[in-house]
Amino acid sequence: MVCAAVCAGPRGRAQAYEAKPKLVVILVIDQFRGDYLDRFRDSFTSANGFNLFLKKGAYFNGCYYDYANTKTAPGHATIGTGAYTDGHGIGSNEWWDLARNTDRVISSVEDERYRIVGTFDDLPVGPPGTIPPAAPRIGASPLNLRATTLGDEVRLATGGKAKLFGVSLKDRASILPSGQTANAAYWIDQATGRFVTSTYYMAQLPEWVTAFNKGPRIAQAVKEAGLEGTTQFYDMVGRTPAANSYELDFARALIENEKLGQGSVTDVLTVSLSANDILGHQMGPDSDEEKQMVLALDGDIDGFFTWLDRKIGLSNVMVALTADHGVAPIPSEAAKLGVASARLDLEDFSASIEAALNKRFSPGAKKLYLLPKQELPYIELDPRAFGKMTEKEAEQAVVDAIPAAVRALGSPVLPPNNNLTPEAERKYSDARIDASPAAAFVRSRVDLAEGKIPATEFGKLIAHSYTANGDWYVMVVPTAYQMEYLTGIQTTHFSPWSYDRHVPLGFFGAAFVPGYYRQQVAPVDIAATFASLLGVNAPSASVGHVLTFALRDSVPAK
Ligand SMILES: [Zn+2]
C-alpha cells in the first residue's frame, strides 16, 4: 500500500504543476507603488502585459515591505534574498566606509578590486557626442550583500548548471537581486547607454553584448525618446518609455543568446526596469506623465511575454512582478489637500547638529562631526572627529542634539493669502494644519545593534533596517509625508510610511491559482515561495513566507 501513496504523488504533481519551470523571471519595476495597477487597470488592454498577473495570475494588492529604509539598493537586495537589511546588509544606495574611502561615499555595489567591462575598451570611439575613451572605471560586485539570493540557491542546488543573470539600467538593481553566483549582471554606461558589466563576472563582454551595443538599438531608443544628440542616455532617455523597451530588448537578446530556459534545469533571470523611477522622482506619482509611462509599459511587458511564449512557452515559465519601493506624493500637492506635508532642509538640520556638538565638545571651533552627503533615514558620523569618545557616547551626543535641530527647522509661517515665497515653499508646504518638521523616531546604531527598539509593529520595521555595513550612524525617521529637499527632483522614497512600502506583487505560472488576493504579503515572500516551488533551500537569511493559499496542491518538481 506504500505504492498507493507514492504513486498518487507524481500524477497529482503532473496535474498541478506540469513540470518544473524552465525559466524563473523576477520582474522589478523601479519605484512602482502598489496602487498603480488598481488605479489604471481599466486601461490595460493587452493579454500578456499587466493582465498576465491581474487576470491570468495571482495578484496581491496588499504587498508591503516590512522595513524602514525603502530605497533602491536595499529593495532589490530584499527581493533577491527574501531578507531585510538586518539580514542582507544593504542599508542605502551609498554610505560612508572610511576604511575603504575617506574622500567620498561608496556605492552599495562598487568594488575597487574589479573594473568595469565594456564601457570603452572593446569598442571603437562611439558616435559624435559620446564621451571619449577614458581609463577603465572602478568595478562592481555584490561584496556588501551578506545573504544568498533565490538564484544563488538554484545555482547551488544544480551544481552550477542553472544559469543566473541580472539586467537593469542601474548597477545595484542588476547585481543585488541576481546574487553572488550570477553568470553576469548587466547595466548601462550612463552617458552612452551601452550595456556593461564588471570583471567580477568576466574579463570581456560576450560577442552578443558587443554586437548589441554596436547595433542600431541605442540610436533607436534615443530617437524614440526624441533626444537625438544626447550625451546623457541614463538621465534623459532613461526617464522615457523608450528606456523600458530598450531594456526588455536587451533581456530578449540575453535569453536568446545565453539560451535561457532551454536546458535541463531551471534558469533564473532578474530584470529591473529603471525608467519609472527616474521619471517618478521628477514628476510625482499623480502626474499624467506617470500614467502614460505605466500604459506604455503595459505594451512593452505584453511584447516581452508574448515573445517569451513563442520562444519557450509561458507554460514553462514562472514569473514574479514587484517593485523595489513606492514613492510619496509631491509634498506641495499633498499639502494643497490638507495633508501635513513638509520638506526638510537636511543641510540646515546637519548644521544645527554640528553647532550643538561644537558648543559641547569644541567651543569656538568649527569642527565637522558629521560626514557630508547624508542619506536619510541614516545620519552618518565622522568617528575621527570625536577623539577618544566611544561610538556609544558619540552617537548619543548626536541623538541629544536632534530635538533642538528639528525645532530649529522652524514652523511654517503662512502668509495670509498662503502665497509662500519660493524659499518658504522650498522648505515647507502650505498645509492647513501644522506641518512643522518633526522626527518620528531617532535611535543610535549601537542601540539598534543591541535591540533597544520598541516591541511594536513600528519597532519591527526599524529592527529590519539595522545594518552593520558602514561606520557610525544615527537613524532619523521624519513623520509621514515629510522628506528632505533634494535638488532637481520633486519627491522621493526612503521611509517606513505606507506609500514608500506599498508595491505590487503578481505571480504567473502553473503553480499559482489565478485570483485577486487581499491578504497582506511582503516582497520577501517571493524568494520563499519560489524556493518552495523549486524544491531548493530558501536563501540564507530568508524571512519570507510561502504563499500557500495562492498555490495549487503540489509537491516540488523533481
Ligand atoms: Zn528604486
Descriptive overview:
- The protein has helices at 2-16, 36-40, 51-54, 72-81, 85-88, 150-157, 171-178, 207-214, 217-224, 233-236, 241-257, 275-283, 288-312, 331-336, 346-361, 391-408, 422-427, 445-449, 457-463, 498-501, 524-534, and strands at residues 23-29, 58-64, 94-95, 106-107, 110-117, 138-140, 164-168, 184-188, 195-198, 267-273, 317-323, 342-344, 378-380, 439-444, 473-478, 482-484, 502-508, 515-517.
- It has 21 helices and 18 strands.
- Strand 7 (164-168), helix 7 (171-178) and strand 8 (184-188) form a beta-alpha-beta unit.
- Helices cover 35% and strands 16% of the residues.
- The protein is an alpha/beta fold.
- The strands form four sheets. An eleven-stranded mixed β-sheet has the order 6-5-9-8-7-10-1-11-17-2-18, sandwiched between helices. Strands 13-15-14 form a three-stranded antiparallel β-sheet.
- Helix 11 runs parallel beside helix 13 and helix 12 runs antiparallel to helix 13.
- Bound molecules: zinc ion (ZN).
- Zinc ion binds next to helix 4.
Question: What are the defining features of this structure?
Answer:
558 residues; globular; binds zinc ion
Distance between the termini: 23 Å
Q: Shape, please? A: globular
What is the count of β-strands?
A: 18
Ligands, ions, cofactors:
zinc ion
Number of helices: 21
Determine the structural class based on helices, strands and strand pairing. alpha/beta
Q: Determine the fraction of residues in helical runs and give it as a percent range.
A: 25-40%
- Gyration radius, rounded: 24 Å
| Unreliable residue runs | 1-19, 122-134, 413-418, 426-431
Q: Provide mean pLDDT, rounded.
A: 90
- Across the major sheet, the strand order is 6-5-9-8-7-10-1-11-17-2-18
Strand % is: 15-25%
Largest sheet: 11 strands, mixed
